[in-house]
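Priority: medium. Attachment 1 of 2:
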């Protein structure tokens, strides 16, 4: 088997290109089998007392989230910032 380690002179050859500026926020996401983490079984979620235990798959159109999932997420973020002593800024200073 040949040594595939790049030589130092090849490592410094960098092609500087401008990034492609397009509306990446509106590109459809291609979620397919093998590129995501699988969800836990509902029994395991219940055991550790986490909310919303259910069977679901990232491949399904409906992830069965509660209606107020955004509020739950934002409240959790604020709580974690406060727990880290960062206040509401999240700056860490």
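Attachment 2 of 2:
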């Amino acid at each position: 088997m040949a040594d595939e380690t790049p030589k130092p002179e090849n490592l410094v050859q960098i092609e500087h290109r401008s990034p492609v500026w397009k509306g990446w926020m509106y590109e459809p996401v291609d979620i397919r089998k093998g590129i995501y983490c699988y969800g836990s079984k509902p029994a395991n979620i219940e055991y550790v007392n986490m909310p919303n235990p259910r069977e679901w798959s990232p491949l399904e159109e409906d992830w069965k989230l509660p209606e107020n999932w955004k509020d739950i997420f934002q409240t959790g973020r604020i709580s974690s910032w406060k727990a880290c002593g960062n206040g509401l800024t999240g700056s860490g200073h």
